[in-house]
DNA sequence: CGATGCGGGGTGG
DNA sequence: CCACCCCGCATCG
């Protein structure tokens, strides 16, 4: 996607020519084009045609994407972050909230210099079990760093199928390191399984596997197995450097996700946890925050004000899962879709109560760059703005010192684009 | 075994 | 009312 196009997508111009954009709760969502390029002639319409984009595994910030209904990853509502289903009592919009990341309570450093960042099990039960395990590196207990990136609550992701597209909207900025991607976790799991099932201990092979999957994979291994991981010469690609993409391919048979479009996590996110710095992140390229609030009245870093705007969109202009019985005659009930189909698929003509007026959310500006720190600065000039209290990316490397209460230390980091 | 979805139900603002 | 959370149930790989 060209620079110009990126710009156009992030076109929340808060002025006379205000260009509205969609919100996951909108009664009517933009139509989607097949091609990658938006229809310029309809740019001024809230319902202007939009183009689908390649799947984004690691979304962050207040962003919105439109994927092709054929996109396998989108169909599965995947995310690199560990997201669990959250009941929002709306069968048309699937809501998921972030579980955070599991880390070593002692914050030890792995052989490769990185830190343990496990993917929290989605299943509650499994997660509890997971937390009882010990750090594969230092034997300390594991700890779940909850996500509080959305006004103190976990970052939420919303999915909605509409027409030929799958709409995705995220709210909040992850205030914790990335966990392993889902595919990595799965890979590790199967790897461990293989190992267990094959008696002959083969150090060589294990090392190879490890290198392929990254240090974080060391985690859930049996303590007895641990020693083999303390191998020197550990590849240093995890977590920050690796592109999630390679691991995603297994799920990406259709190849709708150009690896080149992947972007790493933003180092700034972690300022929220001063006690936990991640070298990997800090050295990784950054990308401009994907905030998309454009209402000047929110500017002054008032989480409260911000929340107002943000959460406003969480509610729906839709009927919560229409119940067949009395009431809503004009609505069909949400019939259970045939196996395989998400039940939140549109099942009734959308009802438009309150039109979510320009939710002041602009369209996924995040996609605007997969560049490096420097480049970001260039591009963002005048567009991406940080709140005054927000330190520069690299300054976020708060020394973790000894204190470990990195949880409630700072408010969320917000960013506003396109004032 | 878990990942996912669904949806009933409780809670606090 | 709304946004969140918890929990159990069911399906599926």
Automatic annotation (TrEMBL):
Keywords: Developmental protein, DNA-binding, Nucleus, Transcription, Transcription regulation. GO terms for cellular component: nucleus. The keyword Nucleus applies. It comes from Larimichthys crocea. This is Chorion-specific transcription factor GCMb. GO terms for molecular function: DNA-binding transcription activator activity, RNA polymerase II-specific; RNA polymerase II cis-regulatory region sequence-specific DNA binding. Pfam families: GCM. Its main location: nucleus. It comes from the Eukaryota. Residues 172-189 have a biased composition (Basic and acidic residues). Residues 36-191 form the GCM domain. It is found in: Nucleus. One of its GO terms (biological process) is gliogenesis. Residues 172-203 are annotated as: Disordered.
């Amino acid at each position: 996607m060209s620079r110009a196009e990126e710009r156009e997508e992030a076109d929340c111009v808060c002025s006379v020519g205000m260009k509205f954009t969609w919100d996951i709760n909108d009664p009517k969502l933009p139509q989607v084009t097949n091609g990658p390029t938006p229809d310029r002639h309809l740019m001024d319409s809230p319902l202007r045609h939009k183009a689908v984009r390649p799947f984004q595994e690691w979304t962050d910030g207040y962003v919105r994407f439109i994927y092709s209904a054929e996109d396998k990853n989108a169909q599965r509502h995947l995310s690199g972050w560990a997201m669990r289903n959250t009941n929002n009592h709306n069968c048309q919009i699937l809501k998921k909230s972030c579980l955070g990341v599991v880390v070593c309570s002692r914050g030890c450093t792995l052989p490769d210099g990185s830190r343990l960042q496990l993917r929290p099990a989605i299943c509650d039960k499994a997660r509890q079990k997971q937390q009882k395990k010990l750090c594969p590196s230092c034997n300390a207990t594991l700890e779940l760093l909850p996500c509080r990136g959305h006004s103190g609550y976990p970052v939420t992701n919303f999915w909605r199928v509409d027409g030929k597209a799958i709409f995705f909207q995220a709210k909040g900025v992850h205030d914790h390191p990335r966990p392993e991607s889902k595919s990595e976790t799965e890979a590790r799991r199967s790897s461990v399984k293989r190992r267990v099932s094959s008696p002959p201990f083969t150090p060589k092979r294990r090392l190879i596997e490890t290198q392929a999957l990254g240090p974080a994979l060391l985690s859930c291994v049996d303590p007895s197995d641990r020693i083999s991981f303390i191998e020197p010469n550990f590849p240093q690609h995890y977590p920050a450097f690796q592109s999630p993409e390679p691991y995603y391919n297994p799920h990406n048979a259709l190849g709708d996700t150009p690896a080149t479009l992947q972007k790493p996590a933003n180092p700034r996110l972690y300022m929220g946890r001063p006690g936990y710095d991640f070298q990997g992140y800090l050295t990784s390229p950054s990308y401009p925050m994907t905030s998309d609030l454009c209402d000047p009245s929110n500017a002054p870093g008032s989480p409260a004000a911000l929340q107002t705007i943000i959460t406003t969109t969480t509610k729906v202009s839709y009927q919560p899962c229409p119940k067949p019985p009395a009431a809503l005659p004009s609505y069909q009930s949400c019939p259970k879709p045939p196996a395989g189909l998400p039940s939140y698929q549109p099942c009734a003509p959308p009802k438009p109560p309150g039109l979510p007026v320009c939710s002041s959310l602009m369209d996924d500006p995040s996609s605007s760059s997969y560049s490096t720190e420097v480049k970001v600065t260039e591009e963002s000039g005048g567009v991406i703005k940080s709140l005054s209290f927000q330190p520069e990316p690299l300054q976020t490397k708060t020394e973790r010192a000894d204190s470990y209460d990195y949880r409630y230390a700072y408010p969320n980091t917000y960013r506003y684009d396109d004032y």
